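Posting this for the archive.
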Amino acid sequence: MYEELLIKMRDLNNLIKEKSMDIDKRGREGLKKDIYNGLADKYMIEDDIDLEKLADEGGLWAVDGSLGRIGSLYPHYISVIDALVISTKKGFEHRKSTIYSPMQGQVQEEDEFSFESEMYVKKEMARLEVRVTIEALEKETPKMIFMDGGFIRYIISCKEDFEELKKICIERGIILAGVIEEIKTSILGKELDLKAYDREILFSLLDYKEAMLIKDEINNKAEEGITSAFVRTSMKPYAIGVDISTEQKDAMKDVLKTMIMLTPKDSRGIPIILDIVDKKVKITDELKQRVLVKELDKDVYDRYFNEVRNFR
């Protein structure tokens, strides 16, 4: 029934396996030798971070954003954008929310897939994450902040806002770090002459608690003032990425220590505070339907946003 599809999947599988052979034939130790011979410094993370002291100095914040949608295809939808800061200290939280709809006329339709509109929403979510953090810093001062994602996303989406946040953190001695769950760079692949992304090279490469501190000289993010590291924070074979500003690069080891202390050994490798903020900021279907949709007149909702498939 699906023979043609199965053949295509097998072909893709074989193509990827051939690609993996270029990595595997170098061997785990061979790759590490090449990487630590001028591309990165090895750091085995120590469990000596004092979390009580961290709490006394303001605690740790985690920041994340979320997108939800009411409606269907362009232009008949409303994007609900939410950003949240949570803290390990005194239950402090700060939230910022907004909506966007092509019906507002903010973005012109470019094509049937409304790519420009989709990009606007993603950039607006990044900007909201930065703005909610800046607003929260007007009320409290943490010791460390974990952003959910790398710094490049913020630089592309809202550079001026992000530079403002960086400046505040540097001036007040607040460590700002980006934690990257899905690594998309090819820093190592380029230097090792491998046609591979860093995620592929790093799979099962690092030991638990092993970090690669990437040298700024080979890091293509360095021109944006970013210092990076890759780290294995659990027994799962995946590596996590970490970004920090070059002005705060001396704090990278403290960031890594904090991540290890807050990440369950048998988890997928993300500090638990980032999982918590991810769940708290989620815009659920219940919220959309029982709360937000109620703010629309029924005739407005049915004419513009109610999906025909809801009547199946």
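DSSP finds eleven helices and nine strands in the chain. The mean pLDDT is 91.
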